[in-house]
Amino acid sequence: MAATGVIGRGAAIGRGAVGDRRTVIGRGTAGDRGTAGDRTSISAFSQELFAQLPRTDQMRWAEVYLRGLLATRGRKSVRRMAETVTSSATASQSLQQFVNASPWDWNATRQELVRWIDGRFTPRAWTVVPAVLPKRGNHSVGVHRRFVPELDRTVNCQLSVGLFLSGGREHLPVGWRLHLPEPWAEDPEARRRVRVPDSVPFRPHWAHTVGLVEALSAHSTIAPAPVVADVGSTAGAHPVVERLNGGGYGFVLAVADDLRLLPDPSPVRPAGAAAGARPALETARQKLLRGGVRHPHITTVVGPDGRPRRVQVVSVPTRTPVLRPDGTRTVAPGRLFAEWDPAHRRPGRVWLTNLVQHRMEELLALAQLLGGAAGTVAAMGEHHGIQDFEGRSFPGWHRHMTLVSAAYAYQRLSGVPAQASRAA
Asked: Which region is the signal sequence (predicted)?
């Protein structure tokens, strides 16, 4: 599970025909609407995000929770946040009530967060990354045992998937899905205990990527941008590719090097092959080695540290599957590419894109955003409270993640230092 944000104190960061939604990347930089002079107060920000709440006490505790996330050092338990930002003796109980039991729609708040970000930041991509959230007990929603390659061990955890508006060094979270393993999701008693709605069935991991993208597109007016994600194996890659293609989304996806590709329309029949025999499916690695290594593309990319470096890139055209909304299937042009390791004569991480008219420099810049988003997930676990939710319920988890996302976006874009949020 590459490009995964592994949450934990001191945890290692993980490795980092198309319709009219396709976005052509121009020369403007992400965030070019600027944030330097936008010193929005935390009170004004909270009022914008939570304007839909019907009660004034809900509005008040929403602001206190945001202030606590921004101002509390270390673990952000409701008790420590309450002590940091208010003198009320009952504040911790009220915060717990606000997140876990008070009825409010986290999706409406996320839509307001997207709108607020959209006025201050221009993303170059919608980046989707998973986040592993270690847990000690077994009673929280979705907790299960899972092998995490970045830690090289099996951990007790929740697995979530986040969507980030990414560009430059900014990766701003605006949507989350919690993965419920199939045995867990089909246990009526477990679902009842943590209040999982009947409308939330088991979904394979790949479906969360597509669901997040479709939800953002359907419920906001933000301009579409290429989808950047790691879809890994064949089992997860093909459904994501065909649905993003069918929805008209541009994409740059990290894929497994053994991903089997659609055959070329007129393949050359190998010597000795029987007439009429179906062509063997090539893997992504095989296709790059066969067609891309003779003429590597040499270009310059700017790394996360801001320093340029020259790289060799191998690239070949391919075909990608399309599943249209009406259920019909077809194919669309695509391209495989990877950085080439000349010393070992092999490709690095393999990428698949349907943005066939984009320059290689643009595709490489989009691909680099994946590692930055994974690093942001890890940083949010270290400093912004993703792992500090103390409840067990499905609604509580989503509300906490929404508040953490809002606090992170506010700190990055408001121009107000974090310590300025200490005053209640």
From this structure: none
